[in-house]
Amino acid sequence: PPLRISRADTNYFVSWLTVEPGLILQQANAMGSPTSWADVPDVVSTNGLTNVVQQAILSGVSNRYYRLRRP
Asked: Taking the model in full, what pTM does it have?
């Protein structure tokens, strides 16, 4: 499913709609070959079909990329 990213104050929210349970959100600070993906350590909140992860905006981090993976 597509990811949505929104910002509020010093936090941003990554969300996605799905009926498929267990998808894992991953992040990377740069795209390259190979890209080093890591599971996002933050808790996923669920409200109906919407899954949301809240993260603080970190100083010094200019880019962050996201993807979902199946376990």
From this structure: 0.85
